[in-house]
Every structure is written in structure tokens, then in C-alpha cells.
Amino acid sequence: MDFSRRLVEINERIRDLRTVGEDISDYDYFKGNQNYTSASQLKKLINKGNLHFDKYLTYGDKPTEALFFGNVVHTMILEPGEFDNRYMTFDESYIIKNLDKEYKNPRASKEYKEKLQEYQKSFDDAGAVMVQSLLQEGIANTEKKIVIPKDWYKQAEEMYESIQKVPIAMDMLQNSVKEKAFFSEMAGIKVKSKIDIIMENAFSDLKTISDVPTPKNVNKAIHNYDYDLSMATYAVQTGCKNASFIFVEKTHPYTVGVYQITDDTLERGLNKLETALGRYANFLELKNNNQMQGYFTGLV
């Protein structure tokens, strides 16, 4: 694939991006289509190497609180009408207030853990599962309704309220479809993506950020987390280079940053994508031939 030429041709194929892509649940997207890779997987390969990538494909990643909270925020902002279908909340303070005695660290006490198990059983009986259980069991994607702490809900809600005060961000959210999946082939490799926000002739990605979303901090996040590779993947799949980010700070006062992606950033991502696809093809060849390499060489 000639990525430089592909960049020039982008934004010439589809008149209304909202009419393409597939509506598919997160559960089906992650559990199905196992013969497709993704930008997230390709990042792991180029940053961790073959052995770690092979381990990831075999065992997966253990989910983290950050992963679950990110999903909560995405649902709250992108699909608020779906929130109650996916999540329930519980007030942890209710358990702590009703302990028989005071503890310096209530959550570490045997009594707290026993009462939490009783509380959890009521959710299990209702066909739901507490996020703490999912963290322990290592299951990131479940069809059950997920029970989250009440303060997560409040935090996500306040982040959404902050975005609602930004006209350009709300215009993007109100004139778009959300969470559409794309499946395509690049350089002989099957690649899947799920794009957060798709407008008529543009797309955008919603990101949370620990720092204030200034240009300096956003550029640092793009570099550290290879967001440019993700956006380049979306650009190639949609045929559109009109791309942007909505960043929202994860802590009060929940500052918002809306940034258009430059051609330079997109081309840098395309170069990363080209490298990653080549590495992925090499990984498959080594694995099929039982010749997996577990070392690095070169100049530093």
C-alpha cells in the first residue's frame, strides 16, 4: 500500500460517512472477528515486541479501573440513552456507614468484605455484575449490566456537563452517529476499528486526559499513546482526513479541549501504521513457522 498516495486520495470516496460502517455491540466487536487486528493491537506490537504481543493475543490484558471508567465516560457522553441499559450504580458509603464498628481502613476489614459480598449477591440475582468482580476475574467485555460506584457516575456526569458548555463539541456530538465499526483490509492485513464520533464528512475521537488539555499536553498524549496511529487507521478506513479530538480532563474542573488534526500529524500516523502492518505480517510469519524472536538488536 502506498500510504503517501493514500493520504492524498483520502476524503474523495464517501459523501456521507454517517451512512457507512456497522452498528455492533462492544461485546460482539471484541469477542467476534478474531481474525482482525486493530490499532490498539498494533500499538502493543510496536511498543512491546513479538513475545509480549503473542502473550497478549493468548491471554488478553487484565482490565483496569481506568479501562472501565473510560467506558463509563464514553457511554455517558456518546450514548447517554444507553447508560441505564449498561450500568447500575451502588453507593459504597452505604456499606461503610453500616459496619458494626469503625475501622481505620474500612475497605480492608473482613466485615466490609463480607457485607460487600452480600451486596454483590443482590446484583448477581438481578443479572448484573460488580465492576470489582470483573477486575478480579479479568473479563473486560460482558453482556451483563455492570455495577459501578456512585462516584464514577457523578464524575462522568460532571465531565459531560463540562463538554455541554463547549458549543463546537456539542455541535459535533449532536450532528453525528456514534461508535460505528469498520472492517477493511490494509496491505493484506484485516483491520477493524470502532470510531467514536462520525459526522457527514469528518470524524472525531473522545479522549480523557489526566492533565489540563493544553496543546502541549495533548501533543504529549498523542505521542505517548500513539493516538496518531489510531486516527490514521480511521482515515484510511473511512476515506476521510477531516479528523479531530475532543479531550476532557478527568478531574475537576474538567477542562475540555477540541483539536483539529493536521496533515503532518496524520501522515506521521500513516507512517506508524505502515510500519506496524509490516511488523504484524512479520509476526504472523514467524509464528506460523515457529520462529518467534525474543530479542531486539540495532543502534540507540
Compact overview of the structure:
This protein is an alpha/beta fold and 300 residues long. It has 14 helices and ten strands.
Distance between the termini: 29 Å
Uncertain runs are: none
CATH structural fold name: Lambda Exonuclease, Chain A
Instruction: Look at the helices and sheets and give the structural class.
Output: alpha/beta
What's the total number of strands?
10
Largest sheet: 7 strands, mixed
Relative helix content: 40-55%
The Rg value, from CA coordinates, equals 21 Å
Assembly state: single chain
Number of individual domains: 1
What best-fitting shape do the alpha-carbon axes yield?
globular
Estimate what percentage of residues fall within beta strands: 15-25%
Order of SSEs, N→C?
HEHEHHHHEHHEHEHHEEEHHEEH
User: Class, according to the CATH hierarchy?
Assistant: Alpha Beta
What's the pLDDT, averaged over the residues?
89
The CATH architecture: Alpha-Beta Complex
| Tally of DSSP helical segments | 14
Plain-language structure description:
The chain has one domain (3-288): Lambda Exonuclease, Chain A (Alpha-Beta Complex). The strands form 2 sheets. Strands 1, 2, 6, 7, 8, 9 and 10 form a 7-stranded mixed sheet that branches. A 3-stranded parallel sheet has the order 3-5-4. Helix 3 packs across helix 4 (50-59). By secondary structure, the protein is an alpha/beta fold. The two termini are 29 Å apart. Strand 4, helix 9 (131-137) and strand 5 form a beta-alpha-beta unit. It is globular. The mean pLDDT is 89. The protein contains 14 helices and 10 strands.
